[in-house]
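Write out the bound-state structure for zinc ion.
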Amino acid sequence: MKTRAAIFRRVGEPLEILELDVREPAPHEVVVKMSAVGICGTDLHQLKGEWQRPTPMVLGHEGAGVVEWAGSAVTGLAVGDEVVLSWAPSCGACADCGRGRPAACVPLHRAIGAGTLVDGTTGLSLDGETVYRGTATGALAERVVVDAKVALPTHGAVPLREAALLGCAALTGVGAVLFAARATPDCSVVVLGAGGVGQFVVQGARIAGASTIIAVDPFEGRRTQALALGATHAVQPDELESCLADLLPEGADYVFDAVGDPSTSATALRFTHSGGTTVMVGLPATGLRLDLDPAEFLRREKWLTGTMYGSEDPAVALPILLEHVAAGRLDLASLVGPVYSLDNADEAIQASLAGVSGRVLVTP
Ligand SMILES: [Zn+2]
Ligand SMILES: [Zn+2]
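---
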């Protein structure tokens, strides 16, 4: 089988659109014809050289498409079904998989670091040379072969361009509030970073019933969007301190760092209320460390936690999010940003790096 795909080779070089060889799918796999793929912060880390992963690599892990072929052992999916890809094709055998957290699977993370699937292969090659798969997926392609367990059906409930956002940003952001923090009604929330994931943290906070939601972002367009999606206040980073002095002088019950930089993590900890919870959502560049004052935790009994992919099995979380969409509580449509063809995938990357509002999509 062949597929056209966007290939990342080196930092600073544009993505190349080439035709790759794809190994024949196995009986437990499906071939998904990709309809839309979002550009995520994880892709940008690699494009900026902040993470070292093997190349050439097909990036992209936030996608939706249509099942084009299903293996003989696949149940519950048929040709023509609309699906969201989960980027957690985990080992299925470890303790984390056993507790229903495939995104925490250690063999999966090892594979993601190696640019492969859990079995060490990628199934992709170019003139005999191995091509690696970003985040165990490699969605920036016309066709992707995946284990059927990570092709999650949407039953046509949402247009595919919107469904793509469910594949990473929505599960991560909404899940951070509902499943990781388990935020309670009338709580106060600060969200640092109102990019793709941050906007879904804002919406998760609204769904949880937070009474105060402060979104923080340097880009005006993102602040405006956050206000439209449920933030009660939206400020620039240097305005946060005075905003909180007025609104929440003791700090917020929950502070989400959707950026993932040591400076934003420190801000998140600082402005968390006594007994409150700081949640690290955004992924940091490799090698960064936090400089924390342990006394701050002890004296003020703060909690610090991290969340990966919304701290829930995507197969469990997706139907819950689809219910919120159906009920009008979760807005995907207004977060769809500019859309590019696969041939213009590099323009999509540049738009995402420039901080446009809404998720930048590629439609292979
Ligand atoms: Zn992602
Ligand atoms: Zn596992």
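---
Residues 85 and 151 are 5 Å apart (CA to CA).
The chain has a mean pLDDT of 96.
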